[in-house]
Amino acid sequence: MSTSTTASVSTHILDTSIGRPAEGVAVRLAARAGRSAHHGQGGDWQTLGGSATDADGRCKDLPALPEGTTHVRLDFAVETYFEKKQAAAQQDAPALRDSENARPVFFPEVTITFAVVPGEHYHVPLLLNPFGYSVYRGS
């Protein structure tokens, strides 16, 4: 049983188009405190820092959340990942469906916002492909 006064967050990314971890994706972490007399619904977002996924698709060094955090935002910069992947394996790349933009990915960024409570750990995996994504609360 945790006695921590803050929540903690971890994430990983699986590229479902190849069934492998997505390496080298930049991830930015932001947090905000909940309702307050000053800010009504919630405080302003505070960017805490970032990381990038390793060869296992995991971010092992995301910053700690400040005390009082009630909402967390993970920003995944996925466009660069898919551009590099396509350049490295051009002959195996699927045909671009979004050809009018000449882009290898439909969603250039993925932003996930979720609520947290103190003392809980939140593992939030991202399942990713060039034309869609899915997230869930993992364990």
Automatic annotation (TrEMBL):
Q: Does the keyword Hydrolase apply?
A: yes
Q: Name one GO molecular function term.
A: hydroxyisourate hydrolase activity
Presence of the UniProt keyword Hydrolase in the record? yes
Recorded catalytic reaction(s): these are:
5-hydroxyisourate + H2O = 5-hydroxy-2-oxo-4-ureido-2,5-dihydro-1H-imidazole-5-carboxylate + H(+)
Q: What is its EC number?
A: 3.5.2.17
UniProt keywords, alphabetically: Hydrolase, Purine metabolism
The EC class name is hydrolase
Ranges of residues in domain Transthyretin/hydroxyisourate hydrolase: 9-138
User: Superkingdom, according to UniProt?
Assistant: Bacteria
PANTHER family in the record = 5-HYDROXYISOURATE HYDROLASE (PTHR10395:SF7), URICASE AND TRANSTHYRETIN-RELATED (PTHR10395)
The record describes its quaternary structure and partners as: Homotetramer.
Free-text function comment from the UniProt entry: Catalyzes the hydrolysis of 5-hydroxyisourate (HIU) to 2-oxo-4-hydroxy-4-carboxy-5-ureidoimidazoline (OHCU).
Q: Which family does it belong to?
A: Belongs to the transthyretin family. 5-hydroxyisourate hydrolase subfamily.
Q: What is this protein called?
A: 5-hydroxyisourate hydrolase
What is the source species?
Streptomyces viridiviolaceus
The upper taxonomy is: Bacteria, Bacillati, Actinomycetota, Actinomycetes, Kitasatosporales
The gene name on file is uraH
